[in-house]
């Protein structure tokens, strides 16, 4: 991959990663509840999903998803229902008193798995990558090193952006600590909104 192509890909990746979505909402909610360090497994889960997307696209399966209305719709509704479910659970969650020195405990394995599902159940992400990534591929060169470079770039950029979102959320923590119920309903509403937008979306 030529340097100018990589720089263009890097710029596009930064813009895409910074654009808020369900992954950012999930990261911020986890950070406020558990602190930055315990949010890292959640961020890693988002990156695992990104890598799986890349593998799907590289294998040509992204084109199948893009062409299949039924498959796209099934995955879309599974993702929408899952996000709405997360939102409802967040709404019903008992508000916890968070002291500045003791973030609440949350299963890091559960946080990791939940983040993977948040990303994986968004078929638009796969379709988008299927249309987006080939624009930066040079068919005259070996494909796998190019996909590897793009994969590493996406993971590093998105990880840094998610750490930024988590850090920003922690700045809100003193306010959220006083209004635990409001915090739960705010992030619950954001999850439900993301699910609604996904359900209403078209390819």
Can you describe this structure in just a few lines?
With 203 residues, the chain is mainly α. Helices cover 78% and strands 0% of the residues.
Q: How many extended strands?
A: 0
Residue runs with pLDDT of under 50 for 5 or more positions = 97-103
Number of helices: 10
The largest pleated sheet is described as: none
List keywords for this structure.
mainly alpha; 203 residues
Structure report:
This protein is mainly α. The protein has one domain (3-9, 22-94, 105-200). Helix content is 78%, strand content 0%. The longest helix has 29 residues, at 143-171. The relative contact order is 0.23.
Topology, element by element:
Blueprint: H1 3-18, H2 22-34, H3 40-58, H4 61-67, H5 69-92, H6 108-120, H7 123-132, H8 143-171, H9 173-178, H10 180-200
